[in-house]
Amino acid sequence: MRELGYTWEWQDDGILRATTPRLEAVVTAPGTATKCFFNQLPATTNNALEFSKVGSDGSDLHKNLQSVPTQEGINKCLSFGDGSEVPLDCLMDARKICERHAVDLQWQDGDVALLDNYLVMHARRIWNGALETRKLLASLIK
Questions:
Q1: For residue range 39-96, what is the model confidence (pLDDT) as tens digits?
Q2: Burial 126-135 (b: 16+ CB within 10 A, else e)
């Protein structure tokens, strides 16, 4: 991670805070002239919203789960590069936009999905199948 410009530190409450290097939000997809929104905001938002719902000590996730995320919880997980807070309402709006444009694949046995990470954002829904029946293979190629 250090070679990629990430930094990290353990917080007093035992949470690991990882900081990414500054990344451009919009890039041109390789081999095209197509500009695309290419960053971790949707994934980071989902993680921050989930973690912000956990009680202050972080123990027993399900016991301490709050019904709604809080700005205080978000501030522990996410900030702008200058350290200022990212408003919770902006994150919720971004999440709604992503959901509004989401397409769920209707998987069948043997299906394979190939996605261009520059042109398509992807996510994983909660797995509702039997334990140990989901197999997810990922490959990063150039």
A1: 777 777 777 767 666 554 445 444 444 556 788 878 877 788 788 998 989 888 888 8
A2: eeeeeeeeee
DSSP for 90-122 reads HHHHHHHHHHHT-------TT------TTT---
At 104, which amino acid appears?
D
Q: Count CA atoms within 13 Å of residue 9 on its CB side.
A: 4
Non-local CB neighbours of 81 within 8 Å, separated by 6+ positions: 22
Distance (Å, rounded) from C-alpha 74 to C-alpha 95? Answer: 14
Question: Distances from the Cα of 65 to the Cαs of 58, 60, 61, 118, 126, in angstroms?
Answer: 9, 8, 6, 34, 17
CB atoms within 10 A of CB 38: 17
- Give the percent of the chain with pLDDT over 90: 6
